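Long-time lurker. I teach an intro course on protein structure, and each term I like to show students one example going from raw sequence to a predicted 3D structure in token notation. This year I'd like something fresh instead of my usual example. Would anyone be willing to generate the tokens for the chain below so I can use it in lecture? Attribution to the forum is fine with me.
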Amino acid sequence: LCDPGFLNPVVNEEKAGEVPPVEEPTAIAQVTPAQEEPFSYKLEELPAPVPGWRPSGTAFTSDGTMYAISMTVGPLYKNKIPVVPEATPWQRYARGFNNPTGMVVADNRLYVSHRPEVTEVIDSDSDGKAETFRNVMGPWGLGPGFHQYAFGLAFDQEKRLYVALNCGYFWSYGGPTQRG
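-- Reply from a regular --
Happy to contribute to a lecture. Here you go:
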């Protein structure tokens, strides 16, 4: 999982617009703090909510909450930023998503893309756990083929949601894959 600082990347204003000099290639690349990029992201390792965690999406709300979802069976956890497990442990917010691969927050509403649809996840009674799951896009009619997914999730300035569908991988063994 990465630091939400990626939403506000660090910009070195002194070097903005400068083109770094081209160096001759060497057998071993050496990077020192003096070779700072004019535009960079800060990556920080965060503790996983549970052992064996396979993250497949993160999203952040304006109140400083980070949501993180796991591939394949889709438990969805939340925590406050910064994530300090000793002070505020991860809380399971929802579960049961089918191969989730994307998540986004638009107008403080949380959406998850998973194999059959895009779902709005709602904590109706404000108890810290989701009770309401509203289908906002789909179902797409994906079959049981292993590579059939709804990938990613994004929205534009008008808050229209976008997701990419993959119809499958066509192996010669004739397995369960829809051609489309």
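Some talking points for your students: The radius of gyration is 20 Å. Residues 1-17, 25-29 have pLDDT under 50 and may be disordered.
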